[in-house]
């Protein structure tokens, strides 16, 4: 079994204006968030989730990503680094990576977590991929 075979997968889309994005998804797509946290809205379509998050002024599409949810982020990061994956350094007002992992405060109440640990890297085609571990 591969290191990410059993990981849950979610899409994360940046929004420069979260209120504007919320209106678009409601008015144009008939989608309402099932949950929210400061700076984030969580939606469900069928049995898959996606999140909109405040992108802190980054260029549109900069942080569009597919994210894997795992139980032991440190072990996954260590294994992927062993395989040559290079993780991104993030230094933003709301989060900063230390040894490749950032602690993100707050989470969606439905996820029964107080926050999340996250790490990010690019695939061979330049797509941003994330790995997260809920803080419980």
CATH class: Alpha Beta
Tell me, what's the shape?
globular
CATH topology: 2,3-Dihydroxybiphenyl 1,2-Dioxygenase, domain 1
Helix percentage range: 10-25%
Give the helices and strands as they follow along the chain. Answer: EHEEEEHEEEEE
Number of strands: 10
Strand content: 35-45%
Rg over CA atoms, rounded to whole Å, is 15 Å
Write the CATH homologous superfamily. Answer: 2,3-Dihydroxybiphenyl 1,2-Dioxygenase, domain 1
- Our measurement of the CA-to-CA distance between the termini, rounded to an integer number of angstroms, reads 26 Å
CATH architecture: Roll
Q: Estimate the mean pLDDT confidence.
A: 87
Helix vs. strand class: alpha+beta
Low-pLDDT segments: none
């Amino acid at each position: 079994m591969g290191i990410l075979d059993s990981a849950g997968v979610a899409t994360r889309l940046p929004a420069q204006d979260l209120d504007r994005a919320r209106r678009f998804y409601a008015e144009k797509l008939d989608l309402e968030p099932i949950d929210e946290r400061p700076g984030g809205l969580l939606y469900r379509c069928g049995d898959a989730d996606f999140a909109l998050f405040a992108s802190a002024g980054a260029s549109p599409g900069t942080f569009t990503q597919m994210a894997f949810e795992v139980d032991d982020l440190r072990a996954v990061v260590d294994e992927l680094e062993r395989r040559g994956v290079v993780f991104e350094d993030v230094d933003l007002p709301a989060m900063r990576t230390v040894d490749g992992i950032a602690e993100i405060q707050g989470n969606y109440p439905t996820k029964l977590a107080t926050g999340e640990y996250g790490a990010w890297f690019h695939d061979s085609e330049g797509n941003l991929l994330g790995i997260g571990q809920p803080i419980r």
